[in-house]
Specification:
rod-shaped; alpha+beta; Heat Shock Protein 90; four-stranded antiparallel β-sheet
Length: 275
């Protein structure tokens, strides 16, 4: 029947295997019946449906039910006081013609003399089983090969990760050392800048008093009411006063720089001629 309905290869082996296992589990049960039918689908693919009914407390083996659920498209098991029902089904190829005339010809063919012997059918099933086993073995070998490649790839990834981790740790160590060195250099520069600012402030203050004294003394000697001096002496006193004023301006600039670096310089707005 499976051959007549177009089931070939693995699909036919799965159907025959499940039906054989269910029949073996339930054979000898009271009122045991098996109904095979081709159910045309309504908007869906048609199915070959096998309906087992029996009474009593006997149940199919749990492994048989799991195999039916895994191998076939449909598997429904119900039990009640009236009896037990197990329905399994397999989707038929969409190219199959399941019209009433076609089903009638299949029925006549099944009820007529069989053109296949049981031995030939068993040989056919054995060939299909051997083919399935060969494909399963090939798939297993392919899976083992892929697993080996995956394991090799994982080893490479782990080795690369370890290498990158070591390089990253070494780089981090160098960065930490460089950061510590930069921090130390910054501290030294900050201390040097503070020392320079203090030095300028101290030098400026120390120079300011004597420069002012020199300038004041020169201006007193150049005053009209001062003691008489020769022309050459007046020129020398004027040179001393001018140089002292220049030196005082430089000292004032040093004080401004020191104030600016320490943040204590206060700007003052004055009119400036830009021409």
């Amino acid at each position: 029947m499976t051959r007549a309905l177009g089931l070939e290869g693995h699909e036919r082996v799965r159907v025959v295997t499940v039906l054989s296992e269910v029949a073996r589990d339930l054979l000898g049960s009271p009122e045991f019946r098996v109904l095979l039918r081709a159910a045309p689908g309504s908007g869906q693919a048609a199915h070959l449906v096998a309906r087992f009914t029996w009474s009593g407390a006997r149940r199919p083996d749990a492994s048989t039910l799991r195999a039916a659920e895994r191998l076939l498209d449909r598997c429904t098991y119900t039990t009640s006081e009236e009896g037990n029902t197990l329905t399994v089904g397999q989707r038929l190829p969409s190219s199959q013609d399941l019209s009433r005339e076609r089903l009638e010809r299949i029925r006549e063919q099944l009820h007529g003399p069989s053109e296949f012997s049981m031995t030939e059918e068993l040989r056919s099933q054995n060939r299909l089983l051997l083919q399935a086993l060969e494909e399963s073995r090939a798939q297993k070998e392919e899976l083992q090969r892929l697993n080996a490649e995956l394991e090799e790839t994982n080893k490479g990834v782990v080795a690369l990760y370890s290498e990158l981790s070591a390089e990253l740790e070494e780089t981090n160590t160098g960065v930490v050392a460089l950061y510590a060195e930069l921090e130390d250099k910054s501290r030294q520069l900050r201390l040097a800048s503070e020392a320079k600012t203090r030095f300028w402030a101290n030098v400026s203050h120390e120079l300011r008093a004597p420069v002012n004294s020199v300038i004041a003394l020169a201006r007193l000697l150049l005053a009209p009411d001062a003691d008489p001096t020769t022309e050459e002496q007046r020129q020398q006193l004027s040179l001393i006063a001018g140089s002292g004023s220049t030196l005082l301006a430089l000292v004032e600039e040093l004080l401004d720089v020191a104030k600016a670096e320490s943040g204590r310089l206060e700007p003052s707005a004055v009119d400036t001629d830009l021409r």
